[in-house]
Amino acid sequence: MRDAKQILQEFQRQKDLLTAFLDQHENQKEMLRFIQSPTSGRLKELNHRFRQFCFECRFIHYMSKFIYFQSINTIRKLRRNQLHPLEEVPGEGVAVCGGEPEQGLIENEFGCPVLASAIERLTDLQQKVIHLHYQKGWKLRRIAESFRVTPQSISKTHRRALEEIKKRMESEKHA
User: Would you give the distance in Å from CA 58 to the centre of its chain?
Assistant: First the structure.
């Protein structure tokens, strides 16, 4: 029969939960005692230690995952709070007051009355997207985050606004 140290070394070569359990010196001693003279009392003690070790491992794993996901959620909340909705950001408003565009401001911003006229006929959302993207230099993703909508939605609004502007400018050019 093999001696207790050889059996213990075989357990340690397996690289699993049992190996981690046996890496602790007290657990090694208890395992050696059980291998040398197996009794039901030593078996119960060894089982108790192993169950306690497994519980601690599961608890540590759970807590590490919990901390990981909480930190991700905290980072997301911080990023979300940095990009306020347009209504809350002073000085970031669009050239729209009470639902009506201000003619002079749009002309001054774009410097072209035909373009300003085409932009005036866009929806409020399209005007805001055009303003933030071209006047403020915001990326479409940032605009989407500020409106709390998907980037695809803002991209679609942006594309439709450009198509509408192009169509109106071409029709005014030929008029």
Answer: 25
